[in-house]
Specification:
The protein has 123 residues and is of the alpha+beta class. It has helices at residues 22-33, 50-60, 82-91, and strands at residues 13-17, 39-42, 100-103, 106-109. It has one domain: Glutaredoxin (3-Layer(aba) Sandwich), CATH 3.40.30.10. Helix content is 27%, strand content 14%. Strands 2-1-3-4 form a 4-stranded mixed sheet, with helices on both faces.
């Protein structure tokens, strides 16, 4: 496993990508159509660890319950327990919402895919 290289500035963009997800593929195509250069990180093959997930949450500006896929979590999980959710996503990367684009110090969930373009508004 290799550590995720976080974007240092607004010129650096990372797509947290799951190739099996249609929304993730659509977001990749959308970035390409807009001429946005990015690096793809396959978080299924190379899962994010707890520290990386905490960093992602900070860049998203959201609580973990807002960037996990509840249907991929064990039944009865307390969605208000952020530390537990991070632990579960670290163990089961399919539970991470997808796709997510990280640009500089900010990130955006691509649901719908066009939402990621908010990261580039005014650039």
């Amino acid at each position: 496993m290799s550590a995720l290289e976080w974007p240092k500035g607004d010129a650096d963009v990372v797509l947290l990508h799951n190739a099996r997800c249609s929304k993730s593929r659509a977001t990749r195509a959308l970035l390409e159509e807009h001429g946005i250069e990015f690096v793809t990180h396959d978080y299924i093959a190379d899962p994010l660890d707890r520290a990386e997930l905490e960093e992602l949450g900070a860049r998203l500006g959201l609580e973990p319950r807002d960037w996990v896929r509840p249907g991929e979590l064990p039944a009865g999980v307390d969605l208000g327990d952020g530390a537990r959710l991070i632990e579960l996503v670290a163990a089961e990367p399919r539970a991470l919402q997808r796709p997510i684009v990280v640009r500089g110090a900010r990130a955006q969930v691509g649901r719908p895919p066009e939402q990621v373009l908010e990261l580039f508004a005014g650039s």
